[in-house]
Structure formats: C-alpha cells, structure tokens
Amino acid sequence: MxxxxxxxxxKHWTLDEVRALRNRTTGATRYELVDGELLVTPAPTGVxxxxxxxxxxxxxxxxxxxxxxxxxxxxRDVDLEPGRSVQPDVFVVPPEEVDRFRGGEPVGRLVLAxxxxxxxxxxxxxxxxxxxxxxxxxxxYWIVDPDARVFERWRPDDDRxxxxxxxxxxxxxxxxxxFTLDLAAYFAEVFGEEA
Length: 195
Prior knowledge:
By secondary structure, this protein is α+β, with helices and mostly antiparallel strands.
C-alpha cells in the first residue's frame, strides 16, 4: 500500500517579495499578487496585444472627452487593497487618481478594468482578479475572450457575468453619452479579417 502524497502548502507571497521579483527580472513577464497568490503571466501573443491596443484606443478618447479620468494599459501597478497588486491589461482611473498615476505611485481606485484572456491567465482573470475587482467595487470588469469573440461583463454585485456578443455599451456615472464597441468589427480587426 502506497503512502498518500504529501502536498506542500502553497507559498503566501508578500507585496515586497513580488516587487523585488519584478526588479530582478527583465522581459515582458507580468507578476501580480492577489490574496497571497503570485500570478505570473508570460509575454502575450500578438492577438492578445492587438486586442488590448484596440480596446484602449477606443476607450482613451471617450474617457478623455467625458472627463472620466484616464484610460491606460499594463504594465502599471494597481493596489486596490494593502498587500495586493495587479496590472490590468486596460483600465480607467478616476480623476482623483490621475495625479497618483502620473506621479508613479500605485493606483488605488479604478472605474473600469479589462483583461484579455490567454491560456495562462484565464483562471487568474476569471476567478482571482474578478473577486478582487468586485469586492473593491470596480464598477465594470470586462473579460475579453478572443477565442469565443465575446466580452464577459462583471459588476460588483454580479454572481454571473453578462455575456456580450454583439456590442458593449458602457454608461459610467457622470458621462453624458455611452461608450459603444461593435464586437464583430472589433474582433475582425483583432484577427486581421477587416476588408
């Protein structure tokens, strides 16, 4: 009869350890910390990067025109809670956080966070980060799934996401008009299918 396998307890990382790890490494690997769990994301694919860039390119002028703060891209530390640090692919900081953002301090609040799924990030994006964003009342969290060509929209009190396959309409507080993203056109451009 064999002995049951012993599993070692998972290491509980600290923010100081993660920041030291970031300082020792080079390249495009992203290191994030949520609830003591180290999330490591390798360099993204081209499809991932195009999806991120196009989403940011659409959001930036809208956020600026509506005076909602600043739309930005990873890598940039967002510390919503003590001892936790994430770097959303695309995010919007509210006006009162813009000076912190520009000054180099970690951002402490978000209006919107968006993550583009990749095989290595799906669990962290859908479970770990989603819980962090929801409990910190980030008003919109979008999970962009290029393979399924959908956005999953999460709001703070949601138990399940809203699956968006036609378009994204976002009407944040204080905006005089909505942000609209046609998903067929967006994903066609992501995959280089536009005519």
